[in-house]
Amino acid sequence: MTAPSPPLLRPCPTCGTPASVARDNPDRPFCSARCRTRDLMSWLDEDYRIPGPPVDPEAIAPTTSRDED
Ligand SMILES: [Zn+2]
After folding, report:
1. What is the pLDDT of residue 17?
2. Centre of ligand 1 from the C-alpha of residue 34, in Å
3. Alpha helix locations (H) across 1-69?
């Protein structure tokens, strides 16, 4: 007796709607292209928000000035 194939449904990472993860779903694991795009945009948005101030090379360069004898 073979087990019935499980439903290939997983909650969409964006909206939580059960989405098909079968090969015929080009937007898997998302439920739609809209959710896939939204996830990508939020990912890029976070990528732009890297913490930390911009580094000024001259600010971290060792000081070459020294006192004369
Ligand atoms: Zn979705």
Report:
1. 96
2. 7
3. 33-48, 57-60
**CATH no. for residue 26?**
3.30.50.10
Distance in Å, CA 22 to ligand 1 centroid? 15
- Give distance in angstroms: CA of 43 to centre of ligand 1: 15
pLDDT along the chain (69 residues), means of 10: 76 94 91 94 76 75 70
C-beta of residue 12 within 8 angstroms of C-beta of residue 31: yes
Tokens of 65: 């000035």
Containing structural domain, residue 32: 9-49
Whole-prediction pTM: 0.54
Q: Is residue 57 part of a domain?
A: no
The pLDDT value recorded for residue 48 is 65
Tell how far the Cα of 50 is from the centroid of ligand 1, in angstroms: 27
Domain count, the chain: 1
